[in-house]
Amino acid sequence: MKILVDENMPYARELFSRLGEVRAVTGRPLPEEALDDADALMVRSVTKVNAALLAGKPVKFVGTATAGTDHVDEEWLAQAGIGFSAAPGCNAIAVVEYVFSALLMLAERDGFALTDRTVGIVGVGNVGGRLQKRLEALGIKTLLCDPPRADKGDDGDFLPLETLVEQADVLTFHTPLFKDGPYKTLHLADEALISRLKPGAILINACRGAVVDNSALLARLNAGQRLSTVLDVWEPEPDLNTELLTQVDIGTAHIAGYTLEGKARGTTQVFEAYSEFIGQRHQISLDTLLPAPEFGRITLHGPLDQATLKRLVHLVYDVRRDDAPLRQVAGKAGEFDKLRKNYQERREWSSLYVQCDDARAAETLTKLGFNAVHHATR
Ligand SMILES: NC(=O)C1=CN([C@@H]2O[C@H](COP(=O)(O)OP(=O)(O)OC[C@H]3O[C@@H](n4cnc5c(N)ncnc54)[C@H](O)[C@@H]3O)[C@@H](O)[C@H]2O)C=CC1
Ligand SMILES: O=C(O)C(=O)[C@H](O)COP(=O)(O)O
After folding, report:
1. Mean pLDDT, each 10-residue run in order, the chain (378 residues)
2. Is 232 left (phi over 0), alpha (psi -120 to 50) or beta?
3. Predicted ipTM > 0.90
4. What ligand has the least distance to the C-alpha of 232?
5. Computed from CA positions of residues 11, 238, 99, 71, in that sequence, does the dihedral angle turn out positive or negative?
6. How far does the centroid of ligand 2 lie from the alpha carbon of residue 319, in Å?
7. Which of 99, 259, 307, 318 has the fewest Cβ atoms surrounding its Cβ within 10 A?
8. Looking at the chain, which residues constitute the CATH 3.40.50.720 domain(s)?
């Protein structure tokens, strides 16, 4: 059994070698000769998986260690009889923590309280749903837009996108990229939508670049629209518009989902799916794979206010550590992917054990996803 894995999948060699011979390859571009004798292919979002790549090859299963699947022609895989699995939700916590890190940075810089802001969430799935819960745990008002869920009759107060545009101070996108169909998201944020955002609003895109029309956004920013912008994803990648990068408040190289936990969950989810596909069911516990974090334990004295939360969040992950390197290399061939390949280890908030002498601080931090306990220390 020969299994090709993207070289940017942590723990892939260790896990997949339990099932067969593993070869790690670059995902962009994927060396096509490697497919000639491969039984299975494990990719990330940078590899386009379609007939052009796989027709006539022996590959019987494709796994993508990602939440998004717009790089995979699932219809063709199904009609070609090739098994497929994605990794839904694997990195949702990472994206939520990226959004929080960015919002706390902007709130400190511009001197506002997050509890005075209303956050509009477009796409309330694994990322958007977790984001809603964590924002509400802090007492921040959210407005939700998810037409597919609304049409299915899911519980939730789902609103039209237009209402979010009118009322939200922060508009954050967490939808898949659908190029057409009833729930098309390509250029969901177009020039008309962007120009109607509230003055001083914050626009965040951490889903897929083309969900926001990047040329329209640049035109609005150049026209002096009062808007703060956080872009993790770009139209197109890896060759983003470098002028747009100079205009955004935070710009990163599609790394919102890149916690070690998030990437490792992606690998384990496709490993489990493939092991089931070949009839050798394995289940993996993440705890057995992950190393100890750089900061493991901290004591918080007193209550939790926004400034304290910001310091705690930024101890684990400060989004500015990913903004500066992108600005340094943008426009140079190959550098966007190099930043992603050589990504400095980043952990999730749950990796930090926080001992609090204030019961409410412990309760809030627990709801936010920290490993917090209340323990009187004074
Ligand atoms: N920047 C990054 O590193 C990452 C980006 N992503 C992207 O974010 C997307 C969302 O991730 P998840 O929450 O895990 O996916 P998900 O599939 O759990 O949730 C997506 C939600 O969007 C909703 N939706 C679909 N069409 C919509 C529309 N037209 N308007 C509003 N809502 C719509 C769906 O009903 C669903 O509830 C992924 O598809 C992926 O493209 C995901 C993880 C990491
Ligand atoms: O899971 C997704 O969807 C993502 O966007 C991933 O975080 C992207 O990471 P790569 O697969 O491009 O390494």
Report:
1. 97 98 97 97 98 98 98 98 98 99 98 98 99 98 98 98 98 98 98 98 98 98 98 98 98 98 98 98 93 96 98 98 98 97 98 98 98 85
2. alpha
3. yes
4. 1
5. negative
6. 17
7. 307
8. 2-86+259-288, 91-251
